[in-house]
User: Fold this.
Amino acid sequence: MKLLVIRPVIKTPQLDTLAGELSGDELASLCKTTARIEVAYLPYGPSSVECEYDEIAAAPGVCQLVTNRGKDVDGFLIDCFVDPALEAARELSPAAPVIGAGQASLACAALLGERISIITVVESVGRMIWRRALRHGMENHLTRLRHIDVPVLATTDRMSLVDLISTQAKEAVEKEGADVILLGCTGLRSLAQDVSTALSGMHVRQVPVLDPAITALKMLETLVALGLSHSKAAFASPPLKLRTFPL
Assistant:
């Protein structure tokens, strides 16, 4: 089994400084899988996704990767919580399932509790998440959306990030009755266990803490193993016609 993780950003040296930047092998280790996991970046697009304009800028590159790699991988993960170009990518993939980290991890969180607290990086991303929760009919599962006020490209200090997220999570559990914590940015990947440990040290009641990237990747592996993909009745292939894009 080969899975392609699409990071919907351009590759820059700055990414290597981020706390959640993981290779395919590191993702496989966290997922406890024998699947081959490849990480791909966009040939062009934004350096991070923090607003709707960034999503639009990322979409053509995501679609290009799905089109070019659709016959040599078994599944695609769009590795961003706001799932840029998810529906379009599903239309373009002839057989391999395409899932988005946000939609998939939110669906998993809804299996684990009734009041989900999403903690993301900055307010603009929180607003994007809320719009997508409305689209998917998940708004009634959510407590107040929270953010740590750290831009994606500034998520370099792992300890500081864990402290900031844990503080928000503690308030969500104690003041809003949250029973599941979901990290609302895949740039925070690999921090969930540390946050869970920190909450335990704060004597907060035990609640699941989900890493969206790892959760979604494991769900993608399961879909492939079951031989399942998205419905072509819902996501039909695009009709053949002239389309032009700026160079």
Q: What stands out?
A: Residues 2-101+215-226 form a domain with the Rossmann fold fold (CATH 3.40.50.1860). The longest strand covers residues 2-10. Residues 158-176 form the longest helix (19 residues).
